[in-house]
Amino acid sequence: MSSVFATYVGQHMPVLPVLLPFFTGVGLLAWGDGGADPALAAHKRAWARFVALSSVSLGLLVAIALVVRASGGELMVYRVGDWPAAYGVALLVDRLSAMMLLLTSLVAGPVL
Hints:
Layout: H1 2-11, H2 16-31, H3 38-71, E1 76-80, E2 89-93, H4 95-111
Antiparallel strand pairs: 1-2
Helix pairs in contact: 2-3, 3-4
């Protein structure tokens, strides 16, 4: 069972650096800021920091995994929606893009 999950995650890993910040941002917007109640606002800000830090940490792990896979010379292509190349978007992860993802993840931690 775990090998099926690992294969599934490995197959969809190139799209995770796009989806992870998107869903984190949507979730934090839906979470809100607590309104006028200062105690609730402080509690929600603390949880928002935790969620954001967790998202950045997970993004760093994904970036490291992509760098490891790309360092062997493997090109990972992810066709969004499985459309042909003339009509759809194709995400390509090579050594340079994997290193740029890692650099972005490393910078995002201290900025947060």
